[in-house]
Design brief:
Layout: E1 10-16, E2 19-21, E3 30-39, E4 45-49, E5 59-60, E6 79-83, E7 90-93, E8 97-99, E9 106-108, H1 122-127
Antiparallel strand pairs: 1-2, 1-3, 1-7, 3-4, 4-6, 5-6, 8-9
């Protein structure tokens, strides 16, 4: 079963032999919580890999590759991994709110306030950006 998730949500995946296993896998080593930091084109997500966990297909974000993954530069130095929607066993928590269309700041509990459904924060609305 695929879940619809977005950056900021936390998901649970199965780990088997240092890899993220598909949801249908009945034998696995353990379950792990991951934070989604980016949505990929099509289906799938980029997640942060905890420093205590080794995954075969994880990559380290650097100053030269972070834009390739469409993630914020605050994650440089972190280990990341791509997961598709069908490797998510369950959603641990959903981040409620929206990011500002202009400055990209996240505002908890915010809803779309523009005609296209996007959100513009108070500062950007007042400054007229």
């Amino acid at each position: 079963m695929g879940y619809i998730c977005k950056p900021g949500d936390r998901v649970i995946c199965k780990i088997k032999e240092d890899d993220i296993a598909p949801t249908y896998e009945s034998k696995y080593d353990r379950k792990q919580i991951f934070d989604i930091i980016a949505k990929c084109v099509g289906e799938g997500h980029i997640v942060i890999v905890p420093s205590s966990l080794y995954l075969k297909h994880s990559k380290t974000l650097t100053a030269s590759n972070y834009k390739d993954y469409a993630v914020d530069k605050v994650f440089i130095g972190s280990s990341i991994c791509y997961i598709d929607d069908y490797r998510i066993c369950e959603v641990y928590s959903i981040l409620d709110g929206k990011s500002c269309k202009r400055c990209n700041d996240f505002c908890q509990m915010a809803e779309g306030n523009q005609s296209d459904g996007s959100f513009l924060c108070y500062v950007c609305r007042k400054r007229g950006y």
